[in-house]
Specification:
Elements: H1 12-15, H2 21-65, H3 71-89, E1 100-103, H4 104-136, H5 142-147, H6 150-172, E2 180-183, H7 192-219, H8 229-235, H9 237-265, H10 272-299, H11 301-324
Helix pairs in contact: 2-3, 2-10, 3-4, 3-10, 4-6, 4-7, 4-9, 6-7, 7-9, 9-10, 10-11
């Protein structure tokens, strides 16, 4: 593959000579919007996602130790770990509307870690969908038996996502690794092929598989004795809610990724408005990780039942302590 010289590229907010009052006002307004989105994400979504993620880990690990092992729960545990990694990496947006200063090498390492979590979470979710689909339409084939071996599935997904992440790290480019840059988790200085590969394998293929699973679920007639479709969805609502959330948020982000590729191929840095929308899309993507974990905690039945148990215990303790209080004598 031909190496690209990407030294010409830079962020519009850092490269254009703003002379007119209108341009200065536009850049200030853009940075204010980015800053507000960032503060909203850090103040609300990050605590929600981390608290939900920790609670899910505790519940699933305890259930696993008590031999209450369900394939779907193990897949959602893997999905949770991937999203927690993405949430921690999302702290790189704290400096917005400015960017994280780092060397090209350090930015490439951050990008590799981010892509590993990004690819991993989506493909593990596809496995969870496939598990539900085969549970409803059991074919009795090797594929069905394979889904009953979560360790084998995890190994295949981890190997595949590692290779994809390594490919993306190579497409970031190895030139000028010691130079300082403004770093995003999807680096601006990456080659155009970086975004094309990310869109194809990180959104296009998994989204097609996701749509295929939903289509089979809705269109294919269930075998005799299988629960009705509505009952099946109500049994596993968290998975289907997450599926819709992932598709919407990642569609927005990947459209912006492709748009940025178009600008690179035209050797254009774009406008401050393009930069604003790209930053919003990145924060929306991180918000999806937090939202997905909250959905698992509050909607997935094993987690929801544990949350309700804890709330009931707290209510009983509060009720008991109120009864133990001795009223003051007049």
């Amino acid at each position: 593959m031909t190496s690209h010289n990407m030294t010409w590229i830079s962020y519009p907010s850092k490269s254009q000579p703003f002379t007119s009052p209108e341009e200065i006002e536009a850049i200030i307004a853009s940075q204010n919007i980015i800053s507000r989105f960032m503060h909203c994400y850090i103040a609300f979504f990050v605590p929600l996602g981390l608290i939900a993620g920790i609670c899910i880990l505790i519940i699933f690990i305890r259930n696993h130790l008590q031999n209450r092992r369900a394939s779907l729960d193990l897949l959602l545990l893997h999905f949770t770990i991937s999203n927690i990694i993405m949430i921690f990496l999302s702290f790189t947006v704290i400096s917005r509307p400015d960017y994280l200063p780092a060397t090209h090498l350090a930015c490439s390492v951050l990008s590799f870690s981010f892509n590993f979590g990004y690819f991993n979470s989506h493909y593990v979710f596809i496995l969870a969908l496939l598990t539900l689909l085969l549970e409803r339409f059991p074919p009795g084939t090797a594929l069905c038996k394979a889904t009953q071996k979560p360790i084998l599935c995890f190994g295949l997904v981890l190997t595949y996502t590692f290779c994809l992440s390594l490919t993306e790290a190579l497409l970031v480019g190895a030139d000028n690794y010691q130079l300082k840059t403004d770093c995003q988790l999807d680096p601006l200085f990456a080659w155009p092929e970086y975004e094309i590969v990310k869109f194809t394998f990180g959104f296009g293929i998994p989204s097609l598989l996701q749509i295929l699973c939903f289509t089979v679920l809705w269109a294919k007639e269930a075998p005799a004795g299988a629960p009705a479709l509505q009952q099946h969805i109500l049994t596993y609502p968290a998975v289907y809610v997450i599926g819709v959330t992932i598709f919407i948020c990642r569609l927005f982000y990947n459209v912006m990724i492709l748009f940025r590729t178009t600008l690179k191929l035209q050797r254009s840095i774009g406008t401050t408005k393009n930069e604003l929308v790209m930053n919003i899309a990145e924060i929306v993507l991180f918000g999806e990780s937090c939202t997905s974990l909250a959905v698992i905690l509050f909607i997935h039945k094993p987690c929801r039942d544990e949350v309700l148990k804890v709330l009931q215990k707290c209510r009983r303790k509060t009720h008991a302590s109120n009864h133990l209080e001795i009223p003051e004598q007049p």
